[in-house]
């Protein structure tokens, strides 16, 4: 990735947006070890989308990828002052509409109606 380009989405864990500090901590260390080629959605507000990460997804025959919660992606932009409709549109077009190769993160649309969503120990 070019040094002079501002990353909006598709930053790897090794290539950080110029204006941001490197991501550090237990999760980022684990991600570097488990999925070193994982790509990230940074969003238009820098690290706004880090708060929407819910884990790492594994797929048969493919490398692990970062998993995001769709509602949290939208919420992250709203927390940055975006109008909710504009946030939904931005996520739909610029994030869900992005394909960055086999390491593209996945977006999970959590459904409260799932019969398993409210079981003890559920993450949300």
Question: How would you characterize the overall build of this protein?
Answer:
This protein is α+β, with helices and mostly antiparallel strands and 124 residues long. The protein has one domain (9-108). Helices cover 25% and strands 20% of the residues. The chain has 3 helices and 5 strands. α2 (70-79) crosses α3 (84-95). The radius of gyration is 15 Å and the shape is globular. The relative contact order is 0.16. Mean pLDDT is 78; it is low at 1-17.
How would you summarize this macromolecular structure in one to three sentences?
By secondary structure, the protein is an alpha+beta fold. The chain is 25% helix and 20% strand. It starts with 8 loop residues before the first strand and ends in a 16-residue tail after the last strand.
Which percent bin holds the helix content? 25-40%
Structural class: alpha+beta
- Average pLDDT works out at 78
Q: Give the overall shape, derived from the CA principal axes.
A: globular
> Taking Cα atoms only, what radius of gyration do you get, to the nearest Å?
15 Å
Total helices: the number is: 3
Strand content: 15-25%
Low-confidence stretches: 1-17
Count structural domains: 1
Strand arrangement, major sheet: 3-4-5
Q: In sequence order, what are the helices and strands, one letter per element?
A: EHEEEHHE
Number of strands: 5
The largest sheet is: 3 strands, mixed
Cα separation of the termini? 35 Å
